[in-house]
Amino acid sequence: MALFEEVPYRAMIRQEENENDVKVYFVDYGNTDISAKTSLKRCSDELSKYPSQAKRCRLFGISSTKLADAFASLEEKSELESIEFSIVNEKNQIFDVLIYVENECFNEQFGCDLSTIAEEEKSEVPQTTTAETTEVKEEIEPIVSTTSKTHRGLFTHMETERPYVYIQLLPNSEEKLEKINEIIDQTTANPKPISEGHAGDLVIARFTDDQTYYRARIQSFSAESNSYSVYFIDFGNVDDNVANEFVLSYPDELKTIEPQVRGYLLDQIDDKRWHQVVRPFLEAEKLNSEVNFDLIDEQSSIIHLHDLPEDKVEDEDVQAEEKDEPVDEQRKILSGHVSSVENDCFYFQSISSGIDEMNEVLKTIARQNRTDGQWAIGDRCLVVDDDDRLSRGEIVSIEENNEFTVKSFDYGSTKTNRKENQLFLIPDEEIFQREPLAHQCRLQSVDDEHQRQKIEEIPSNQLVEIEIENDQNASCWCVKIRREEQVEQQSDTEKNDENDALNSLQDEHRNEVNSFSVISNNETIDFGEADQPTTIQDETQNEPVPSSST
Which domains does the chain have, with CATH numbers? Predict the structure, then answer.
């Protein structure tokens, strides 16, 4: 995450400008900017799931001698609403397009001959879409593309919570990794630990599990433990506790060698099959082994991995029984309560969310304020509410009077006008690795105009049941509130058992239910991504990072 005009957006680091700054590329808008290394934050796993929203395009049929004039003219027209793009073809993730301004072809004004479209190798009926332009002058970088659909690679790492894997392409990476390791050996023969590192810095870091050095990028620094969290750019994994003495300066010879691992999303693997079947299989059989895969969608980095097991996942009712959570197999019914309201959506905590356990954990934590006064937007922290209760959150804005606005992970509410002495450091990173305990919801079959009115009719001081209409793993659930007559259709045994549990939990939670409070509405993606114009969808920007065993 990088700041642009004091607002955080998704970005990737392009290059290092100097010891303090880097050049970043904003993946949802296409523009670049210079950012201070200290202002960069790691993008959350949830935001990383979304593909980049800006596509790289070229003006079709315009000669290089006229491009400068064409771009200058296009920049003047980029604010117009009546602009349409017609995709002529796509090659190497770059789209050749025709632009229509008020129904007139912009390309023709600069010498484009539309009759040549039929001669294009991939010519089809052009697909027209309306979009808004962002940055139009960015220099197109060469992109290497293979002609074969099936690829071979070394499976180095996978993420825990989603079907996302990291693979080194073979044989391309073998020679480069050999050269990288030679340079690293020379570096470690005369080690020079860095004096001060910043987020985004490239370094040579020792991986804790095997005591071996690899190329890495700094993600954060802990002053308490004098250690770094680093991302290994050739393998895809992270080490959150590398002592300062084992983080070395980055040799100039390595700066020209690109990362040797790529991240891919597995095609048609839902969360249930990932957790129950695929992830255990990959961990046991494929980690650090050679694999074959088909590239399904190069732009979005989606692949089909060969030789995956076909075992059926466990039935929904069995899972619900194990979790002691009232989930209906077909209708996905959850019991819980509303924790906060956000304009036209609300946040829901299920009765098995673990909020009681989290509150007990936070009660035992020593409250430690930050002494250097360096809180920044995007920093995670513990924040105290009006009842002197701690909750997990992230800073979303800082006012000139040094008051903070913090978004709560576990209640969904936004806590405003917080003083610096009401924010506390995270004593244990494991606390923030737990899933948020409140989930964003909207009411099904209710239009935007009436969402707020209907949400306010939901009982705010008692347990309710919601029926999830879309995928439970979506960022925002589309739900129905179950009416009393629907609940009464359960069998007497189910109803009595459930009522006993709900009545007991109702007493425990009654004082924890937040009153309805209105906060800023950013739809399903928070912290700015949904607030700006979007363009046609592009490939996911995931820079590859050492494996748990190399």
Answer: 57-130 (no CATH), 322-512 (2.30.30.140)
